[in-house]
Amino acid sequence: MTAVNQAYLVCASQRSGSTLLVASLAATGVAGRPAEYFEDLPDTGLPPQSQDWFSDYAGPDPDGVRALLHPAVAGRPDERSAQRWRDDILDAGTTPNGVWGGKLMWNQTPLLIEHASGLDANGGLRTAIRALLGVEPTYILVNRDDVAEQAVSMWRAVQTQTWVDDPSGGSPTVTAGADRDDAARYHAGAIAHLAAELAAQQQAWDRWFRDEAIDPIRVEFAELVRAPQATTASVLTALGLDPDLAPPPPLKRQGDGRSAEWVRRYRADAEAYGYPLTRN
Ligand SMILES: Nc1ncnc2c1ncn2[C@@H]1O[C@H](COP(=O)(O)OS(=O)(=O)O)[C@@H](OP(=O)(O)O)[C@H]1O
Ligand SMILES: OC[C@H]1O[C@H](O[C@H]2O[C@H](CO)[C@@H](O)[C@H](O)[C@H]2O)[C@H](O)[C@@H](O)[C@@H]1O
């Protein structure tokens, strides 16, 4: 099993800027290989499909929403033992200097706790994380104050299945093609549903850090995208790593004029119909 000397966990919700931060940290070569190690569902061995985000959709026009979602793909159950699961994650996430990094979205916390129960860690999230890593990690909390922008970003991603724009082509979840984006449509009910989901995740992280008396390193989306290299440098410093290794941003912004137009429309619809607009 890979020896971990130091660990950190980037805690976030979808479309908060988390990949920009972890890709920047990964590019240093000394800050672990932080990926979303906890996203795969046990019954498919795959991340949640677009439909999964809408399984409890209670807004208007459910058939219209379903028709816009990216089609599901088949998977296979993850039959690894808990020990194998842990070894795979430690191997994949650790750089040769013994630093492990990972990214955890709040919706993935039940999966992490469930896997860790096989390691005889029968408690809450903190117990599960300690059982997995064997050391107490540093926590980094990524937040996006503008939940309308965040939800629009996710509504476009669940339609197109394009989660990242990585000019290096190194990300497995790169582009789906312009045709998928042509087929994507604005839908106020769908965006409201995602805004509620993302706001709830952010609130859950706030509650958890308060309850655990942890003061995480905080990264706000607006500041991260304004100054990605400097923000990454300050996180490296907080981790005791060399801030001069912070790279220029390895990812490109995905949002464009179309996203901005959907955000404007959503804000107006949210005012009119009482849809969520803030994270609180
Ligand atoms: N370099 C750079 N500059 C500006 N913005 C950037 C950059 N890299 C990533 N991003 C934006 O981050 C948003 C994606 O967030 P996440 O990485 O947390 O999403 S994911 O759920 O993990 O896929 C998503 O936000 P939107 O632009 O609003 O769609 C990305 O475009
Ligand atoms: O709903 C499926 C998943 O969508 C996002 O993850 C995908 O993009 C991430 C950023 O490139 C990548 O780290 C991940 O492996 C991809 O599956 C979202 O960040 C996930 O939380 C979500 O499960």
TrEMBL record:
It comes from the Bacteria. Residues 7-269 form the Sulphotransferase Stf0 domain. SUPFAM superfamilies: P-loop containing nucleoside triphosphate hydrolases (SSF52540). Keywords: Carbohydrate metabolism, Transferase. Pathway: Glycolipid metabolism. It holds the Pfam family Sulphotransf. InterPro entries: P-loop_NTPase, Stf0, Sulfotransferase_Stf0_dom. It catalyses: alpha,alpha-trehalose + 3'-phosphoadenylyl sulfate = 2-O-sulfo-alpha,alpha-trehalose + adenosine 3',5'-bisphosphate + H(+). Catalyzes the sulfuryl group transfer from 3'-phosphoadenosine-5'-phosphosulfate (PAPS) to trehalose, leading to trehalose-2-sulfate (T2S). Belongs to the Stf0 sulfotransferase family. This is Trehalose 2-sulfotransferase. The lineage of its organism: Bacteria, Bacillati, Actinomycetota, Actinomycetes, Mycobacteriales.
